[in-house]
Amino acid sequence: MSETHGKPLDLDAEDVTRFDLVREGARRDGVEIAYYEPRFDPSEPKGKREKRIERVIALMLLTTGVAATAFVVIYGWWDWKYELDGETDKWFTPLLGTCMGLALFGIGGAVITWAKKLLPKETSIQAHHGGASAEDEQQLTVATLENMAEETGITRRPLLKGALAVGLLPVGAMAVVPLGALIKKPRGELFDTGFSKGTRLVRLDGSPIRPDDVSAGGIETVFPGIPGGTTNHYADSPTLLVHLRPADAKKAVPRKGQSDFNYGPFYAYSKICTHAGCPASLYEQQTQKLLCPCHQSQFDVLEGCKPIFGPATRPLPQLPITVDDEGFFVSKSDYIEAIGPAFWERP
Question: Could you say which architecture CATH assigns to the domain 190-331?
Fold first, then answer.
């Protein structure tokens, strides 16, 4: 155990130890080391207790390494794509969270155990002060940092040194690997839906729909009539087919360049709210408004579904429609603008 002393220290004295420099540096910085006691004497061979503590810390760090490596493997190679009634995809996110939690728990446990069981016991008293550091005080700061490294005992604990490398390197990979998802610039999946020229509009059960199937003032949720068009693989494609009443259809004002997107009193708008992607599917027949139930955005169907209330700032994209030779609704093309909420490169 070492106690404090108040006499000035001669930094040039030959018998000055690094800890003496540490104490003097602390004193000049307004910190008095009132009590200091190493938990283990570095000059003596390691005992059973010290080795046991090292093994516990090493086990925690190795747990961190294994969990972080598992995170990287699951994130990079797991088939995460959602499938209706699928089983394996349900475990993707829980496993990522479990692995990350174990990795962080291992780091936290190792740091706490190292600090509580291996680092010296120390009590310091600090007085606050201001001012720049002199050159000799910078020398003292360097000695303090070197002493802190020595106090960890890492130089005489090769097991922990290796455990740190094995445990923490995968943690770095765990933080970096998810950024790989940003390498590929998403293009088609943000701008393209399941509709194209001649694609039939179908119900959830896959049956095509004719104009007579939707009564005046009514609506119908439709999907692209292609394989998988009603599944989550085309989650950006749900469309709301609106049949305006004759009097309301006369008041409709199309958006610029979209005067031929409707088929008579029938208008098709994306069902995905341009605010946060919720389904804007509550239709008020008397006011011709579409309401998004999530954040109360309202869109005026008679004005090209432009937003008139709530946080949404852009109109719902309109799908150009007509009927085919058999009288079923078909799309003239895909949406001419990206559907859903805003993103960086949205035109």
Answer: 3-layer Sandwich (2.102)
